[in-house]
Design brief:
Blueprint (H helix, E strand, L loop, with lengths): L4 H22 L6 H7 L14 H20 L6 H6 L2 H11 L5 H5 L2 H5 L6 H9 L4 H19 L6 H24 L2 H10 L10
Helix pairs in contact: 1-2, 1-3, 3-9, 9-10, 10-11
Length: 205
């Protein structure tokens, strides 16, 4: 029995959601197509009804992963998946109703982000691997980074050039802090996260 277009779309979304999490948790090589399909509750054989290759899946997974962080960086309400990964974001959403939202940096540098990379920033989780990936995957990754920078820049004041420069500076610092924190002992990780809690240019907000 053939699935409807709507069912196929839902199945594809399940695959992408699983892939976005597993690739960030285990790496592009650490999570196989079979792992993704099993996590999505589907058989391996159904994969090629949705994607031509694993690279095509990686591109879709990157877009999905960036979507979560772009909406957060731009000041929109975090998605349900993000709230599940970062319990304190619920308080951030509530704070929007009665006061200013907490700085993006403090959410990015949360301990939960360090511990739950499967729901985390794709740049901090996959950046080094992407540097060795195909041109198409690098292109998808670069598009996501540009969206992140644009979202962060939209929250700042000043000229377009100064806002973009400040956003690039902040985002690269946050990513570097997360990479170091995950690779360090708890004491150093805490020190790095605390030191970077006030992003450069916060007075431009």
């Amino acid at each position: 029995m053939r699935m409807s277009a709507e069912e196929k779309q839902r199945s594809r979304a399940r695959i992408v959601t699983s892939a976005a999490r597993l690739f960030r948790e285990h790496g592009l090589d650490g999570a196989s197509v079979a792992d993704v399909m099993n996590d999505a509750g589907m058989t391996h054989g159904g994969f090629y009804k949705h994607f031509d290759s694993k690279d095509a899946l990686i591109e879709a997974a990157l877009e999905s992963a960036f979507n979560q962080f772009v909406e957060l960086a731009g000041g929109d309400h975090p998605s349900a998946a993000m709230l599940q990964a970062f319990p304190e974001l619920l308080a951030a959403v509530q704070a929007r109703e009665g006061g200013p939202p907490p700085p993006y940096a403090s959410l990015y540098l949360a301990r939960e982000h360090v511990e739950r990379r499967g729901f985390g920033c794709p740049v901090a989780a996959l950046g080094p691997e992407i540097s060795r990936a195909s041109t198409a995957i690098k292109r998808a990754f670069g598009a996501g980074v540009r969206r992140m920078i644009g979202a962060l820049a939209s929250t700042r004041k000043g000229s377009a050039a100064s806002r973009r420069t400040a956003a690039i500076r902040e985002f690269t610092m946050l990513v570097g802090a997360m990479v170091i924190a995950r690779a360090s002992d708890p004491e150093l990780a805490s020190e790095v996260l605390t030191a970077c809690g006030g992003a450069p240019g916060d007075d431009d907000r």
